[in-house]
Amino acid sequence: MKTDIEIARETKLRRITEVAAEAGINPDVLEQYGHYMAKIPTELIDKEKASKSKLILVTAITATKAGIGKTTVSIGLAEGMRKIGKNCIVALREPSLGPVFGMKGGAAGGGYAQVLPMEKINLHFTGDFHAITSAHNTIAALLDNYIYQHAKDGFKMKEVLWKRVLDVNDRNLRQIVTGLGPATNGMKMISGFDITPASEIMAILCLSKDMDDLRRRIDNILLGYTEDGKPFTVKDMGVSGAITVLLMDAIKPNLVQTVEGGPAIIHGGPFANIAHGCNSVIATTAAMSLADYVVTEAGFGADLGAEKFLDIKCRKAGIQPSLTVLVATLNGLKMHGGVPESDIKLPNPEGVVRGFANLDRHIRNLQSFGQSVLVCFNKFSSDTPEEIELVKKHCEEIGAEFALNDAWAKGGEGAMDLARKVVQIIDEKPSSALKFAYSDEMSPAEKIEAVAKKIYGASEVSFSRPALEKLKEASRLGMDSFPVCIAKTQYSFSQDPKAYGAPKDFPFEIRDIVLNTGSEMIVAIAGSIIRMPGLPRVPQALNIDIVNGEITGLS
Question: I want to staple 268 with a disulfide (CB 3.0 to 4.6 A). Which of 280, 289, 404, 520 is the partner?
């Protein structure tokens, strides 16, 4: 079969004005980026129309390096829904340049279930990530300047919490010293870089309901503490307006198209292992204002992305899925069944059966939120009919709905059965009222423990001394009602990335707490998770080139 980029390049794209018109968007309101991409205004959001739309969440079993294919399923499902005559839009996150050139590669789907123009979406797109990076680093520069310019007035910072960000995987920037050299270079400080998807500005953009809400949240960002122990915020510097200006275009969702010409809205890109892992509230509600069915995804496995989608995004946006689609693959099941990565493409029914423990845990977790769950088997070319039948039979035995997806090879036609099953479940037994893993009234520590024990399977949760001190500070700052966002490895329910399957009764340690007063959530850092990834020994960048004016090696 052709490569993703070959398929993308050979697809005849529709003008974005045509795509918009079909989606019910007046082409005159578009801000076009060439012929095939456009920004759409936030004024398109209609709460009454959105309340009638059916939201479908796509999540997955625990992530493996073999890949699960949530984005491919999400796009394929939207294509399949359109094939059976349903008005459907897919709403996704934007790819991050770091993983595109690092380990993961692109994030625009695959095969005949892609969003296009793939090269632009995977690279600079409409500049949203650059705007977020610039806004974040402008705050850092203004803070450093504030400290420098007001030093003669006796102003001092006891602690600076605000670091810098860059949308590149760069381990050398995790910890740095700034202000070296003469005094005119500023105050010497220990700092560091996170990757842009981990920026609080990214979380703020994705959780804001409109421009006013964006401005309010930027005002509230905690930058550090003055020498007398008082919180120091962006509002204290008086620069919230300037930062909001940098995000005026970035807050608007992006309209593109699938391989089959259907509308797709792509906006925002927080990672689910270090942030909340969902596209923007604005993008999702805009899609729900336009379509009868909206397909969206949450990052990594359901223990990360789906939990945060439900406990954070749905809680704050007042939305909930009518159905959750749980993606599974033979490769993923085998890896969680103890099969070595080098052998997962080989037939191994016993390994598949052992991997069901991971699948079953995710199903139970999602059902605990009140979700109706459909297991979507994402078909790979190496899969055997016998092993596929094993998965189908297991789902039948435990009373779980099952459907096959072959959109990678066949596009919307390969997802029509999945689409019909989705519509049937939503019509006959949709999700019940959303049940959160914790209540707003619980303390932050209790919320963290609830997620770790109910969702991950931990037996106990411990907090380092610094984490406990920051939880006390959270209370002092009035953050007790905020949701929690746990940053942990994507490769396991536990904090150990090598603990595949469905580990349980393990200790779970929170080593640090980050207080996001702007995005209004408490980030708990578990285990050795870091917020600035490094590059692998053989990065994807080695495969990417431009030959005869065309990009090659991008996947």
Answer: 280
